[in-house]
Design brief:
Elements: H1 2-11, H2 26-35, E1 40-44, E2 47-50, H3 51-66, E3 75-79, H4 84-95, E4 99-103, H5 109-119, E5 121-127, H6 131-145, E6 153-157, H7 164-172, E7 176-177, H8 178-183, E8 200-205, E9 215-219, H9 220-234, E10 241-244, H10 251-254, H11 256-262, E11 266-269, H12 275-285, E12 289-292, H13 294-301, E13 316-320, H14 327-335, E14 338-346, E15 351-355, H15 367-374, E16 379-380, E17 386-390, E18 406-411, E19 418-419, H16 423-429, E20 435-443, E21 449-454, E22 459-461, E23 464-466, H17 468-475, E24 481-491, E25 495-504, H18 513-525, E26 536-539, H19 552-563
Parallel strand pairs: 1-11, 3-4, 3-5, 5-6, 6-7, 10-11, 10-12, 12-13, 13-14, 25-26
Antiparallel strand pairs: 1-2, 8-9, 9-19, 14-15, 15-16, 17-18, 18-20, 20-21, 22-23, 24-25
Helix pairs in contact: 2-3, 2-11, 3-4, 5-6, 9-11, 13-14, 14-15
Length: 571
């Protein structure tokens, strides 16, 4: 009894203001401004802010929003590329108690209107280049205002690299200029952490690779833990110089908007991503880290000689996710001196939440073997408590044999709060106490997982499953192919067969598409099972989301509706 009593005493010690506060990444900014007030925080063109500047600017933003009754329960939408204002929004908006909704700048006006309406955004901050897009979306919303819908406050973000006439136009339409809005706020605004760390910090909509975007709601607690995890698993050093090649609007920049503050690093904003811009920033600013989807890596390795700066002046750490990177691209990056870390995740998991953790014993392996190992999705982040490949029918883990396919499932603090106003989707996503990713994978004997496909992207030909990713990895080995994606095409004999959609390199021979298609098919026949070989090859640019994901649903639709079924061969 005495032992039981002592145990209860241990557990009954109460929380108080001295030993407990809600977790939030806002604490990172206060610390960075205290420890490194004069260190560069954000650099964009001729503008250079220190951590003290950034802290004051974010508090001004929070104050200005609060004075307009924007706070707990409010959502603020930001439509902007990688500019300082979007970085500041990730702190200033939550400091006011509101939720930041960073909007994909490549969406059309009707979709943005849906997002603004669905999120009931009280304020819209928009970069001057995208003002007319926002204005068109607001015109759509204006129709709803007749039924009592309150139009949001409109703030325009100026940028010296843009045509000044676009800013003049925005101001003539009644928008408030961002810097003027900040001036109305107090740089000493006394922000407070959330009373409950489960409070929402951000809202992001799924990328658009499916027809119906869902609103992913994230918490202060999850953002805090995943920001620290993001830096820890990457081995990010204090004072890192980070280049924003990844859109900040994508999963809050994979939480690096907040992580860079925790590590007191410097953000170099890159408004438009080009291979030349990446190499130039490495040389000019001493960039040590950047994140990018595999499509961006492909652009870097295929850059023209005059666009590159090789050999690199120092090791540059690269994190890639968003799609499974072809081993050939990872190999090419390594050859150029980039150190690539491969991660995997979803909007619902705060961005990347697994990592292909590098093992020292791999250092002595040939680069090709290293690239193949590094192409796997790996093991869980420090901040993710549960990860497995599970049979979705039995809910039992698949054997770690590298061949048995199951669904990647996760659980823990790295999982979203849920989808906004979508109970049916939440029920499906959280079924049986796990978050269901929809990605099909195997688990290797060393515990590392490897994606084989999205469940909807598996091609079933003659009753056999074909991984579109496996076929794509082979296509990337062809010397003339720059980008490749494989989708199912209806087939009169086999039900479905692989159709390859290909973008050729600039120096490839394009004089005879039929001859090139035959060459690609012959190449595939020598490297894969016969039933995996694409029966058709389509040339041209591939449709992508703003984060570089290829929109396979559009390719599937094209294969089905425009190309039609593959005719049954006559014997």
């Amino acid at each position: 009894m005495a032992a039981a009593r002592r145990e209860r005493d241990i557990d009954d010690l109460p929380k108080n203001s001295a030993n407990y506060t809600a977790l939030t990444p806002m604490w990172f900014l206060e610390r960075a401004a205290t420890v490194h007030p004069t260190r560069a925080s954000v650099v964009h063109g001729s503008r250079r802010y220190t951590w003290q500047h950034t802290y004051h600017r974010c508090r001004r933003l929070a104050s200005a929003l609060s004075s307009r009754s924007v706070g707990l329960g409010s959502t603020v939408a930001v439509i902007a590329p990688n500019v300082p204002a979007l970085y500041e929004a990730h702190f200033g908006i939550p400091m006011a108690g509101a939720v930041v909704n960073a909007v994909n700048i490549r969406l059309n006006a009707s979709t943005i209107a849906f997002l603004l309406s669905h999120s009931v955004s009280a304020v819209v901050m928009v970069d001057q280049e995208f003002f007319t897009l926002a204005e068109e979306a607001l015109k759509i919303l204006a129709e709803k205002s007749k039924k009592g819908y309150k139009l949001p406050l409109l703030i325009v973000i100026g940028d010296e690299s843009c045509d000044p006439k676009t800013l003049e136009y925005a101001l003539s339409r009644g928008a408030i200029e961002y810097e003027e809005f900040l001036e109305s706020g107090d740089p000493e605004f006394a922000w407070k952490p959330p009373e409950d760390e489960w409070q929402s910090i951000s809202l992001g909509y799924t990328s658009g690779t499916t027809a119906s975007p869902k609103g992913v709601v994230l918490s202060h607690r999850g953002a805090y833990l995943m920001s620290l995890s993001a830096g820890i698993v990457w081995g990010m050093n204090e004072g890192a110089v980070y280049l924003w090649t990844l859109p900040m609007f994508h999963c809050n920049g994979w939480c690096y908007t907040w992580a860079l503050t925790a590590f007191c690093g410097t953000s170099i904003c890159l408004r438009q991503v080009t291979a030349k811009g990446v190499y130039s920033a490495i040389a000019k600013y001493g960039v040590t880290h950047f994140c990018a989807a595999p499509v961006v890596l492909n652009t870097i390795v295929n850059a023209l000689p005059e666009e590159t700066i090789l050999p690199l002046p120092h090791v540059v750490n690269v994190m890639t996710a968003g799609a499974a990177p072809p081993p050939s691209v990872l190999f090419a990056m390594s050859e150029r001196g980039f150190k690539v870390t491969h991660t995997y995740g979803l909007s619902e998991t705060y961005g990347p939440s697994t990592i292909c953790a590098w093992k020292p014993e791999w250092d002595s392996l040939p680069l090709e073997k290293q690239a193949r190992l590094n192409a796997r999705q790996g093991v869980r982040y420090v901040g993710l408590e549960g990860l497995d490949v599970i049979n979705s029918r039995t809910m039992e883990p698949v054997p770690a044999d590298g061949t048995t396919i199951g669904e990647i499932m996760m659980r823990g603090n790295a999982i979203m709060k849920g989808y906004l106003k979508n109970p049916k989707a939440n029920e499906e996503a959280f079924a049986n106490g796990w978050f269901h990713s929809g990605d099909l994978a195997v688990k290797h004997p060393d515990g590392y997982i490897e994606i084989k496909d999205r469940s909807k992207d598996i091609i079933i030909s003659g009753g056999e499953n074909i991984s579109s990713l496996e076929v794509e990895n082979t296509l990337y080995l062809h010397p003339a192919i720059l980008e490749a994606s494989v989708a199912a095409r209806p087939d009169e004999q086999w039900g479905e067969s692989p159709c390859a959609f290909v973008t050729l390199k600039p120096n490839a021979d394009r004089s005879d598409d039929r001859h090139m298609a035959d060459d690609i098919i012959k190449f595939c026949k020598a490297k894969m099972p016969a039933y995996w070989v694409p029966k058709s090859v389509v040339f041209g640019p591939l449709p992508k989301t703003a984060t570089g994901k290829i929109q396979k649903h559009l390719l599937r639709a094209k294969a089905a509706k425009e190309l039609g079924p593959v005719k049954k061969s006559k014997l």
